[in-house]
Amino acid sequence: MKGFVCMKTWLKLVGLGWCMILLSGCAALLLGGGAALGAGSVMFVRGELRVVESTSLDSTWNASQAAMKDLQLAIVTQEKDALRARLKARGAGDKKVVLKLKNNGERSTDLRIRVGFFGDKALSQGILDAIRKHSGGKAAAN
To answer: Would you say residue 141 lies in a domain?
Structure first.
């Protein structure tokens, strides 16, 4: 009888452990969905908005610069080559904005937006909307 109780307790702990993993947001990693951001997805992960845009790196870059101007965000640093680009800006209250772009091909660009240290989903989405207004872009379809 004592062995049965130990086994029952052990099974409850294993079940509890799986529940914690599945409810903590790590399920995507365990189930293979966290390896990469799928085309057409907009995700907010660890304070960073991540999206795959169906526009070229150059188009997304130009739209990002125009969006910063529209939103009255002062560009502090900017660097770009054929594969990647990074733009840092400051907003009201000296809030830091960082955009990272990565070339995925002729008409596909990974775009990551972080506002402040911990991230701000609403402001990040507003920046994405302003970028899309200038690029005519949208999330890449599958």
So the answer is: no
Place of tokens 């294993």: 14
Q: Which residues of 66-92 are buried (b: 16+ CB within 10 A; e: fewer)?
A: ebbeebebeeeeeeeeeeebebbbebe
Residue 47 has phi, psi (to 5 degrees) of 85, 5
pTM of the model: 0.69
Q: Looking at the structure, do residues 14 and 49 belong to the same domain, yes or no?
A: no
**Tens digits of per-residue pLDDT, 40-70?**
578 999 999 999 999 999 999 999 999 999 9
CATH number at residue 62: 3.30.310.80
At 100-136, the pLDDT tens digits run 999 998 899 999 999 999 999 999 999 999 999 998 7
